[in-house]
Amino acid sequence: MAKHVYCxxxxxxxxxxxxxxxxxxxxxxxxxxxxxxxxxxxxxxIGYDYNEMGRQGFSWPVVQLxxxxxxxxxxxxxxYVDLALVEIESCLRIDYTISDAQSGAKLTKxxxxxxxxxxxxxxxxxxxxxxxLAAVAKHKSFQTA
Length: 145
Fold this sequence. Notes:
By secondary structure, this protein is of the alpha+beta class. The chain has helices at residues 30-45, 50-55, 130-137; strands spanning 7-14, 58-59, 62-69, 78-87, 92-100, 106-114, 117-118. The strands form 2 sheets. The chain has a 5-stranded antiparallel beta sheet, with helices on one face. Strands 2-7 form a two-stranded antiparallel ribbon. Strand 5 (92-100) and strand 6 (106-114) form a beta hairpin. The longest helix has 16 residues, at 30-45. The radius of gyration is 16 Å and the shape is globular.
């Protein structure tokens, strides 16, 4: 059974020189940064960036990260980071596909899970805040389950 996707977002990144090794291949740890760049662009688009999360009284730490490397990205390559928001009620779970912008070849598959933590008490929330759900529902690609 296919996962429900609440929202989609695409970010384009050009691989900078400082992200590659002597072979001009992206060091594996930088893929996490590319996920964060795409996630921040999406959060900004819905008006619920990390500053707004804090104003609403929550932090959203990453509690799980999965990566599967298929092909390496290289210096100067333009890549797409496609984000699919697949869970919004108990956590923020996003699936990502990193691909070559020109050919569409898949380079990396990934997912992240974040949970809401109340800043005042430090307690993890078992349901995401209403302010988060309202922000997501405003996105142009939002689809209910």
